[in-house]
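Look over what follows to help learners.
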Amino acid sequence: MDFTISEEVKSAQQLAQQILGDFTEVDKLKVIEQQEERMDTALWQALAEAGLLGLDIPEDNGGTGLGFYSLTTLCEEVGRTVAPVPVIPVLVSAAGTLKRFGSDAQNEKWLGGIASGNTLVTAGLEEYNNDDPAAPTCTAQKMDGGYSISGSKICVSLAKSAARILVSARAGDDLVVALVDPRAAGVTLNAQIVTTGETRHELVMDKAQVPTADIVVVGREAVAAMEWALQATRTALAAMAVGVCDKMMRITGSYTSEREQFGRAIATFQAVSHRVADCYIDVECLRLVTQQAASLIDQGRPAGEAVKMAKLWCGNVTHRVSQASQHCHGGTGVDRDYVLFRYCELARQIELTAGSSAQLMGELGQDICAEYLAKVG
């Protein structure tokens, strides 16, 4: 598979590096971290003005239409700078799903506002003990003028600020994908503190009414929409992990080159140099499997196995690189005035979001077993 990046995508990635670098100095991050919902609105607007929020949004809806692969490069740069912006829940999970499965009227209503940075539409894909939005425990009941939805979604980013939250629910034998208004009657938001210290929300719906205009899709197409949303979200998380782990590795390399023991830099000690070299190998392997998954999704080709492999590597690599970075730093690594701890927290958050490595290993094993049984009849 050819992973050559087009000049347009390279330019977008370089522009993202420049903008994100200007907004993510440690002092600025500390200010944002005092907010309930950690979002740098000035940075979000700067990304919008540069056209970066619309990378995967069609030109007819105010975007640049460069596709999903280009959007994963933005996710990578956000990870590299631990920037407090909701690129995955808003641009991937919500906008990406709407673009591919929403009606023309819905896309016209929501995508332009997302691309311009004026509207937030987020997604609630996870439930308690359930990472698969195509098999939700939430229920929906058809009624005049739409559906009523009951159940809970967890760890919803920017639930208070969002105009709508993309969710799935089971209506008998059918699956329903809907845009829920977080301010509607029957909707309650309960604060949840996640690993990074960020406040997200449990979305509790008690017969929350959703009008027909906010029903995205029903039936088989709804299953396809949620399968796409899960695959795209996992791949975007893996792309963000590439940036996080690459930066942790480089921070560690720089630190060990300057930190001295016994009269010489600890980077010259064989044990230290081998650990950092292992980190480099891990990061490049993660980059490769992530690019493969992103490329397949961008081309509309079957990507299920590639996505599971990417997210499996994502979980393993974030864990190993974070551990090695902390080990090589010693006590300095856990100092909250030092930059590394933010990367380690984000790495752990990514590792356990949308499926752990152990879970995905089990799923891959089941897939291989099923394929073998189908062949032998």
Remarks:
- The first helix runs from residue 7 to 23.
- The two ends are 32 Å apart (CA to CA).
